[in-house]
Amino acid sequence: MYQTIVTKTKDKAGIITLSREERRNAISPTMIIELFDALKKYDDDTNILAIVLTGAGSKVFCAGADFGEAVSATASLLDRHEEQRRFAELFKVIKGLHKPLLGRINGHALGGGLGLACACDIVIAAEDCRFGTPEINVGLFPYVIMATLLRSISAPKRLLELMLTGERLDAREAQQLGLVNHVVPREQLDAKVDEITKKITSKSPAILRLGRRAFYTMRDMEYEKALEYLASVLAINTMAEDVAEGITAFLEKREPQWKGK
């Protein structure tokens, strides 16, 4: 049982809901620890092939850090540093997942909430959602999530403007900037999430794992090193049992029966 999140399974997907609606699903130290646990359990579960992250209610996906539950202002510098490190570690855990992570953005994604949304592999948002980094309005700056946002957005100077001004984007502009994959009317949000989840969970879990890891590893490499690395991963991929099954199924015009090997 968790205090700040709710988990459930649907078909082959594990669903994690940020469940602090009275606090706008804000991120607390307890929530970070519980997300670590839930993500690991779903990532280790062989019956789960994808993970969905969403928020409770219909107004806010996540409003960022809960200042009311942060480390006390009288805490030592070391304690403050360790709390921020745990938040940063969450993004490392997400990057290292074996399974695709989908963001079901049911409401506004602000500050750390925007960081969580952008850390997802595929982001599906209701069209009335808004996105932003309002930290500057209270004398802070979105330091930890900056690394994730910069790797998601197609216009770095637009990102800097958002962080400097605290301006909020509507869902369509967020999509144009590459922060969101799909924008749909609110009443179609669940159907779109289900559609994409089913597409992903119909693929080989072994190759999903290998390919996802290759994407994030390659992203930060120099071009020539990336090519060498990807050639090596391709060689591994061609030796997988699921490749033989996939090709055979294609030639026999049937659905493949993946072994995850």
Description:
This protein folds into 2 domains: 5-201, 2-enoyl-CoA Hydratase, Chain A, domain 1 (Alpha-Beta Complex), CATH 3.90.226; 205-251, Lyase 2-enoyl-coa Hydratase, Chain  A, domain 2 (Orthogonal Bundle). α3 packs parallel to α4 and α8 (205-219) packs antiparallel against α9. 47% of the residues lie in helices and 16% in strands. The protein has 10 helices and 10 strands. The chain has helices at 29-44, 77-95, 112-119, 143-150, 156-165, 171-176, 189-201, 205-219, 223-238, 241-251; strands at 5-10, 13-18, 50-55, 60-62, 101-105, 108-110, 122-126, 130-132, 168-170, 182-184. By secondary structure, the protein is of the alpha/beta class.
Write down the overall mean pLDDT.
Answer: 95
Number of strands: 10
Radius of gyration, Cα only, in angstroms?
19 Å
CATH arch. level architecture of the largest domain? Alpha-Beta Complex
Per the CATH scheme, the topology name of the largest domain is 2-enoyl-CoA Hydratase, Chain A, domain 1
Distance between the termini: 33 Å
Low-pLDDT segments: none
Order of helices and strands: EEHEEHEEHEEHHEHEHHHH
